[in-house]
Amino acid sequence: MSHFGTTDEPIAVRKAIARDWVEDLSEFSPRQIDDACREWRRTKPMRPAISDIRSMCITAQNQEREHQKLADRSRQGLDAEVIAMWKQPEYDGDSRSWQQRRGDAIAQNEERFARSAAWRAGKLDEYDAVHHPERLAERQRQGTHEAAQQPFSTPSRSIGEVLREMGITASEPADHAS
């Protein structure tokens, strides 16, 4: 039981304990051991056993491995993005430069925004007549062009009016099915 430490240990016992500490903690980095010892001193009122510090080092080691895995995955993802960005056009079937592709992507986003603004303003038919006549023709064939013109909005009547029309009043107790 000497490994739990006492104040009146002979030097030979202290050396044997120190050798055991070194042997049991040798798989950890000095920083992990320092951090575990510092944490123990700051949070525990008694002397640690080897197993206490070892347990804290194992936890730190596992956390470091997890962080390293995440960093490696992130780095691999970044490397894949860089490689994909510098691929020759024949690999992705697109002969445009990356600047052209980026410009086209920006233009597509701006067009989507303009179309959604027209929809919100209730002017989707006018917008599509100019910019996307094929979409307008398709909606007219399907009979949905009026619905596309009506953006979502607050009803003209209050909820109370609708509920009264349905025969529901606020004074009735709510019927909750259990």
Account of the protein in words:
By secondary structure, the chain is mostly helical. The protein folds into two domains: 2-82, no CATH class; 102-165, no CATH class. 69% of the residues lie in helices and 0% in strands. It contains nine helices and no strands. It is elongated and about 95 Å long. It starts with 10 loop residues before the first helix and ends in a 13-residue tail after the last helix. The model has no long low-confidence stretch (mean pLDDT 78).
Overall number of strands: 0
Helix content: 55-70%
Number of domains: 2
How many helical stretches? Answer: 9
Give the N-terminus to C-terminus distance in angstroms.
62 Å
Shape category: elongated
Strand content: under 5%
What is the overall pLDDT average? 78
Radius of gyration: 35 Å
Q: Report the structural category.
A: mainly alpha
Order of helices and strands: HHHHHHHHH
In the predicted model, the low-confidence regions spanning at least 5 consecutive residues are: none
Main sheet properties: none
Give a concise summary.
By secondary structure, the protein is an all-alpha fold. It has helices at residues 11-25, 30-43, 50-85, 89-92, 98-120, 124-131, 133-142, 145-149, 159-165.
